[in-house]
């Protein structure tokens, strides 16, 4: 693993995207930053993180053995890698809120933003962005967020976490081609609020109740609705309230 440590940057994902366009990067080139001025979340959201407290990292990988239909599997492998590392630090009640928010009880500890570029030569480059709340303890403005420090009442070494997460990513990306069923089973076992009636919304429509049954083999959320129908929803279609 090649590690580039930055103090401040707009977004580690964008930084890595920029340098990968002009130079050949080794697989598992990693960029970390103490602070992001324009941290990106999913669906165009902003990712805020208190300066120096948390892990902000992006990992470059080229030509993982998935085709473009199976890109969502990278989300699964990455979410599991983060969970597996958190488990070793006794962070309790971990789950994955579909598609890839890392939760402890009802609080979000980490978010993942994976960006892929499809090159004209057929290759696919992937940038895996991970924001993990590590030592931040003040979440006054983010009532649904928490950190490892809050959950475990301890402080943690961010450098150690980077190494452990990258090691786990390597293992899980290998499993994607050798034994994906293992990853799939662990992911489904860890799904946040599986089997519990919850409110959902689809853009501009009134909320409705559904029960999470699982995730389809195309990465869609499978819900049992009140009319006993089973429906699948894509990432951009539905929100859990
Ligand atoms: C989300 O849950 O909305 C995804 C958050 C992803 C944040 C990380 S922090 C490192 C990397 N750089 C970014 O700009 N975003 C990701």
UniProtKB/TrEMBL annotation:
Pfam families tied to this protein: BPL_LplA_LipB
For the keyword Ligase, the answer is: yes
A single Gene Ontology molecular function, please?
biotin--[biotin carboxyl-carrier protein] ligase activity
EC main class here is ligase
Task: Report the EC number(s), separated by commas if there are several.
Answer: 6.3.4.15
Q: Does the keyword Lipid metabolism apply?
A: no
* InterPro entries in UniProt: aa-tRNA-synth_II/BPL/LPL, Biotin_CoA_COase_ligase, BPL_LPL_catalytic
Ranges for domain BPL/LPL catalytic: 1-177
Q: Name one GO cellular component term.
A: cytoplasm
Which CDD domains does this UniProt record tie to the protein? BPL
Alphabetical UniProt keywords: Ligase
PANTHER family given in the database record: BIOTIN PROTEIN LIGASE, BIOTIN--PROTEIN LIGASE
Protein name as annotated = Biotin-(Acetyl-CoA carboxylase) ligase
């Amino acid at each position: 693993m090649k590690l580039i440590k930055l103090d401040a940057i707009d977004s580690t994902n964008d930084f890595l995207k920029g340098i990968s366009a002009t130079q050949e990067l080794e697989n598992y080139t990693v960029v970390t930053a103490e602070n992001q001025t324009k941290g990106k979340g999913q669906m165009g959201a902003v990712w805020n993180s208190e300066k120096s407290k948390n892990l902000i990292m992006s990992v470059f990988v080229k030509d993982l053995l998935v085709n473009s239909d199976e890109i969502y599997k990278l989300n699964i492998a990455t979410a599991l890698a983060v969970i597996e590392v958190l488990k070793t630090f006794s962070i309790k009640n971990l789950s994955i809120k579909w598609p890839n928010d890392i939760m402890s009880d009802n609080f979000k500890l980490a978010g993942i933003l994976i960006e892929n570029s499809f090159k004209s030569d057929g290759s696919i480059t992937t940038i895996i962005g991970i924001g993990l709340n590590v030592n931040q303890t003040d979440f006054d403005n983010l009532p649904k967020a928490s950190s490892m420090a809050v959950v475990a009442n301890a402080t943690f070494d961010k450098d150690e976490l980077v190494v452990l997460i990258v090691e786990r990513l390597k293992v899980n990306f290998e499993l994607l081609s050798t034994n994906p069923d293992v990853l799939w089973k662990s992911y489904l076992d860890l799904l946040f609020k599986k089997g519990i009636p919850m409110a959902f919304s689809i853009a501009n429509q009134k909320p409705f109740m559904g029960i999470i049954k699982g995730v389809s083999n195309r990465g869609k959320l499978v819900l049992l609705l009140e009319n006993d129908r089973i429906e699948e929803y894509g990432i951009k279609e539905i929100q859990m309230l």
